[in-house]
Amino acid sequence: MRLLENLCCYIWPGRGNNCNSYLFAHVLRGDRPHVLIDPGQTVNELNERCLDQLLSAMGRDGLKPEDIGLIINTHAHPDHCQANQALVEMCKAKAGNQTLIALHEDEEGYRRAMMEYMTKMLGQGVAFEPNFYLKEGDLSLGKESKLNLQVLHTPGHSPGSISLYWPDNRVLITGDVLFYGGVGRTDLPGGDGKLLKRSIERLSGLDIEYVLPGHSTQFGAIIKGQDKVKQNFASIRLNYFPLL
Ligand SMILES: [Zn+2]
Fold it and tell me: Can you give the residue range of the structural domain that contains 6?
């Protein structure tokens, strides 16, 4: 679904676990112009074919997987990055530069630990190697800085969780930091409630029209409109902060 001219949203429609994906279309120079945020899983615990569903939805918007030049993971949990490698392999079908994968520098140690943990627990690792690391600050992408994002280091759900802020359209992609009427869990290894609270407070100071979260809740996925966004922060402060 196209939310804005260059921004498509793929809200996970299935019953099992998977993340929402977001795609900035036609922003990079060269022959792989798309940037995908959080590809999600290939197959989830209910055997739903998450990646196939994402690719079909992209196809309906006229977007091809081999045109993805950059994958950004908001954090290293498998439900956000398991499909990374499958996508990179798909991209190899088309000649040209490799598709790159990026995540925050503070997530790297955690990614490695998670990889071992998942392999032990589930017998399946999340095998991918990032090509570069993101840091707090401006991330200008494309010709003549077509897409100007700000990388915000917002730890708490995991050590190197990021949110991506697009000031031009007042869009905030929050990964698992903040949802519609909820917050990311902090009980997994690497979680920290106090840090999450601080991260959410920081996000609440931004001028936001759209919040694009990593998962949907009973209230929905995308929070649209400045008033609703403000109400959401207020309700999180009231209902979740005492628990964090
Ligand atoms: Zn997560």
Answer: 2-243
